[in-house]
Amino acid sequence: MASFYVSTGGLMCILCGPGAYKVSDCVINMTSANCEKCPKGTFQSTDNQAAYCAPCLGSCVDRYQVVSTPCTSTSNLKCRCKDGYYFKSLSADGLEGHCLQDESKPQSSSAKDFQITKSNVSRCGNSSTSILCKLNRKFPNVTEAEHTWERTVLVAVPVFSLVTSILGFMFLILYYTRKPNVIHRALKR
Questions:
Q1: Would 24 be classed as within a structural domain?
Q2: What residues have CB less than 8 Å from 32, skipping those under 6 apart?
Q3: In a domain, 102, yes or no
């Protein structure tokens, strides 16, 4: 069954499928948007109306990871822990962690594959790239560049708020400590 979206012109357009992105909206109601295949090195894993495909990771992010599935137009690079290593979760949701050497099974290859995602996937699995997985749950279909922007905003806004609050507090202190002098001068006139 096709999924639809409402275009800016008010038409019901069929979403682009996995492996493609939207170039323009449909021009006839209930028809497909104008879609193009994702360029090499990019992907879209779901039906979408995205203006571009997400960039694939060039490599696994942990030195104890190996590529289990290369990037395709419909999925990002998938990684797993190297043989002799296992995924150690550091959070309750299982999204934060890293690959550790398996002392009891030095040649173990039973580690699950996990996907390092940059789009909204059903699960991130055993990923050591927790920030991407956590952001993907909050911000589906967002690229790495946009994740960087989100991280910048998440840091900049509280810092700006703190500085503004401190300056406002200092202004109030100065205003109220000088206010009696202003009132005193006005009464002398």
A1: yes
A2: 13, 14, 16, 26
A3: yes
**Angle at alpha carbon of residue 119, lines to 117 and 120, rounded to 5°:** 105
Whole-number Å distance between alpha carbons of 68 and 71? 10
Asked which of 30, 54, 78 is the last residue of a domain, the reply is 54
Q: How many structural domains does the chain have?
A: 3
3-state SS class at 48? strand
Residues 115, 29: Cα–Cα separation, whole Å: 36
Q: Tens of pLDDT along 68-108?
A: 999 999 999 988 899 999 988 888 876 667 899 988 754 43
Range of the domain at 73: 65-142
List residues bridging with 43 in a β-sheet. 54
Closest CA to 93 of 56, 37, 131, 62: 131
Decide if 148 is inside a domain.
no
Q: Is residue 60 part of a domain?
A: no
Q: How far apart are CA 44 and CA 55, in angstroms?
A: 9
> Are both 76 and 46 inside the same structural domain?
no
State the pLDDT confidence band at 156, using cuts at 50, 70 and 90: low
Q: What is the pLDDT of residue 4?
A: 95
